[in-house]
From TrEMBL:
Family the entry assigns: Belongs to the L/F-transferase family.
Single GO MF annotation: leucyl-tRNA--protein transferase activity
NCBIfam families listed in its UniProt record: aat
Compartments, as annotated in UniProt: Cytoplasm
Catalytic EC class: transferase
Protein name, as recorded: Leucyl/phenylalanyl-tRNA--protein transferase
Enzyme Commission number(s) of this protein: 2.3.2.6
HAMAP family: Leu_Phe_trans
Alphabetical GO biological process terms: protein catabolic process
Function: Functions in the N-end rule pathway of protein degradation where it conjugates Leu, Phe and, less efficiently, Met from aminoacyl-tRNAs to the N-termini of proteins containing an N-terminal arginine or lysine.
Record Pfam families: Leu_Phe_trans
UniProt keyword list: Acyltransferase, Cytoplasm, Transferase
Catalysis: reaction(s): L-phenylalanyl-tRNA(Phe) + an N-terminal L-alpha-aminoacyl-[protein] = an N-terminal L-phenylalanyl-L-alpha-aminoacyl-[protein] + tRNA(Phe); N-terminal L-arginyl-[protein] + L-leucyl-tRNA(Leu) = N-terminal L-leucyl-L-arginyl-[protein] + tRNA(Leu) + H(+); N-terminal L-lysyl-[protein] + L-leucyl-tRNA(Leu) = N-terminal L-leucyl-L-lysyl-[protein] + tRNA(Leu) + H(+)
Length: 225
């Protein structure tokens, strides 16, 4: 297993290891209704997750036992040359320290804090993406304050030139935005071409996110992975 290093800390980054293939066949058709769901079922094994992302799908819990697989139309993306960084955000970038892949599970758990509105990241998802992280496919960007406390971050899945952002959090003003700035810098430095954010929100739109038709997204995805 070869090693790469973090662009900020110099810490080793695990080169991706391909897991056993999924025993499930992922659908390639569009959503079955206006919920953006294309299928229900399967599992969260590493091979299943990678197969899904390679075909433009991502999972979320459907009920206590089943998983829903989404392929939104339109799809939210952040153009890698289109991030909006205000003057105040640039100041915030200088206020915080950044690291990568040093506290992946902690970042996921913070994103899944049940006190957060709309929280959906349960233990099964934390365990599944931690396994994906250990294989070198999932990454976290961590933001620290002057006291060394983790105050923000985000995580997602990197396959080739695709980065599929999953969730982000902050406990200090602008900390999640700072994580986003560093993520875009990393993606540009490593020749990524597609930053998927699933759905746009007013907050993400203010930072430069745009809607992309599903068919166009899938074309970009095919080139990226």
């Amino acid at each position: 297993m070869s090693e790469r290093t973090s662009p900020w800390t110099g810490a080793p980054l695990v080169s991706p290891v391909e897991p056993p293939p999924s025993r499930w066949s992922m659908p390639t058709s569009g959503p079955i209704d206006d919920s953006d769901i294309v299928a229900i079922g399967a599992d969260l094994e590493p091979g299943t997750l990678l197969s899904a992302y390679r075909q433009g799908l991502f999972p979320m819990p459907f009920d206590r036992r089943r998983i829903a697989w989404f392929s939104p139309d339109p799809r939210g993306v952040i153009p890698l040359d289109g991030l909006h960084v205000s003057r105040s955000l640039r100041k915030s970038v200088r206020r915080f320290a950044v690291a990568m892949d040093t506290r992946f599970t902690d970042v996921m758990q913070a994103c899944g804090d049940p006190k957060r509105p709309g929280s959906w990241i349960n233990k099964a998802f934390v365990d599944a993406y931690t396994r994906l992280h250990e294989l070198g496919w999932a990454h976290s960007i961590e933001i620290y304050d002057d006291a060394g406390e983790l105050v923000g971050g985000l995580y997602g899945v990197r396959i080739g030139r695709l980065f599929a952002g999953e969730s982000m959090f902050h406990t200090a003003t602008d900390a999640s935005k700072v994580a986003l700035v560093h993520t875009v810098d990393w993606l540009n430095e490593t020749q990524a071409t597609l930053f998927d954010v699933q759905w746009t929100t007013p907050h993400l739109i203010s930072l430069g996110a745009v809607d992309m038709p599903r068919t166009e997204y899938l074309r970009h995805l095919a080139n990226a992975v």
